[in-house]
Write a structure and sequence with these properties.
By secondary structure, this protein is α/β, with parallel strands linked by helices. The protein is built from 16 helices and twelve strands. It has helices at about 5-15, 20-30, 40-45, 50-55, 60-75, 90-95, 125-140, 155-165, 190-195, 210-225, 235-245, 265-270, 280-290, 310-320, 325-335, 340-350; strands at about 80, 100-105, 115-120, 145-150, 170, 195-200, 225-230, 250-255, 275-280, 325, 355, 360-365. The chain has a nine-stranded mixed beta sheet, sandwiched between helices. Strand 7, helix 11 (about 235-245) and strand 8 form a beta-alpha-beta unit. Mean pLDDT is about 90; it is low at about 295-305.
Length: about 375
């Protein structure tokens, strides 16, 4: 993005009353951002901009604020992504209220199309932490990007698990990149930046505000192919993120728990009301997203003399005799429940004895 264009877009975003949706509307009509401030009020009103906003566009102080933020960006290792540029997150482009600008720091590489958001309570239990670590470890051969919000609890467990499994991780934060919140997470910053980084829509002048976390959540939900809720009470920020993900037509998964567990109530309700798919292992996610198992970082090869469990051998023999089959058909023929067959097939894929095909089919190798 040109320096001059960035300056005027920054100024536009500082105009009182103009949010991302209105800004995008103006920028779609005026590809040269500077022309928005030069256009006559009658013309702006003709495209649906009200008189109050037309008057607000005359405020010259927005240029001073834009200049200050531009200096900050230029003096720090910060990348800026404009919603019409190719380096802007592809899925977020399709969210009507996605940020006009995103600021990032670190080594983020968005060429990887497999991107999963992992969210949950800040009071994560040992059960939730273990479920989160297990899920990310099981997904590691597929080399996904793990996205979360850098908060206490599930968020930081997800970032750490990604680091431990050499996966890229993106922390979407609710403040400017000159601030670390919570401060106790300062010790994780460098590790996250090594393979991944931080992303935000907020300026260096932003102050901490609880509504910023809600705005942050829409980026977490919109940037990924799916959102996984690990643990949640019956109310909380992770449920807001899940609802946003559904509004963006993304898949939502939830880890079930005992009905008596406080931090399983939100997940159980999501599953019960069919607002989320039940998640018991990485295989559930792989199946519903129709991912193939062709990892770039850890190629899987068929092993000689591979050892199969009894049920795995039963499935392998069935596929060897019948060729390509659907998951449901495999489960019925082998006398296994679907929820058990899905992770079993993933384990067999990891052993290199079966492979997934388009249309959620599987075949023996």
């Amino acid at each position: 993005m040109r320096h001059e264009d960035l300056f005027y877009v920054l100024a536009l975003l500082q105009v009182e009353g103009i949010g991302d949706i209105t800004a995008k509307k103006l920028l779609s009509h005026y590809p040269e951002p500077s022309s928005i401030f030069k256009t006559k009020g009658r013309e702006l009103q003709a495209i649906g901009i009200g008189s109050v906003l037309v008057a607000a566009l005359k405020d010259k102080t927005v240029f001073e604020k834009a200049e200050a933020e531009l200096r900050f960006i230029e003096n720090h290792p910060i990348e800026v992504s404009y919603f019409l540029d190719t380096d802007y997150p592809e899925r977020l482009k399709h969210c009507i209220d996605g940020p006009v600008l995103l600021f990032s720091a670190g080594n983020i590489n968005l060429k990887n199309r497999k991107m999963i958001s992992v969210v949950g309570t800040r009071q994560v239990t040992p059960h939730g932490a273990e479920a989160c670590k297990k899920l990310i470890a099981e997904l590691a051969p597929l080399d996904p990007i793990i996205v979360s919000g850098f908060a206490y609890g599930v968020d930081i467990v997800a970032h750490q698990a990604a680091i431990e499994n050499n996966l890229q991780t993106i922390a979407v934060v609710a403040q400017g990149l000159n601030q670390i919140y919570p401060k106790s997470h300062q010790k994780f910053v460098n590790r996250i930046k090594e393979n991944g980084g931080f992303m935000t829509e907020f300026w260096s002048s932003s102050v901490t505000d609880k509504m910023h976390f809600v705005r942050r959540n829409r980026v977490v939900a919109g940037i990924s192919e799916a959102t996984v809720v690990i643990e949640s009470a019956d109310k909380g920020g992770s449920l807001i993120t899940a609802n946003m993900a559904r509004d963006y037509d993304r898949e939502v998964f939830a880890v079930p728990g005992r009905v008596s567990d406080l931090y399983s109530q939100g997940c159980n309700n999501l599953i019960k009301t069919q607002r989320a798919q039940l998640l018991t292992s990485a295989a559930d996610l792989v199946y519903h997203l129709n991912w193939d198992l062709k990892p770039s970082a850890q190629p899987i090869q068929k092993q000689l003399f591979v050892s199969l469990e009894e049920d795995e051998q039963k499935v392998y023999d069935f596929l060897s005799q019948n060729g390509k089959e659907l998951l449901d058909s495999i489960a019925i023929a082998c006398g296994l429940p679907v929820f058990k067959t899905a992770p079993l097939l993933l384990n067999m894929e990891l052993k290199g004895v079966v492979r997934p095909l388009p249309g959620k089919l599987f075949e023996a190798i």
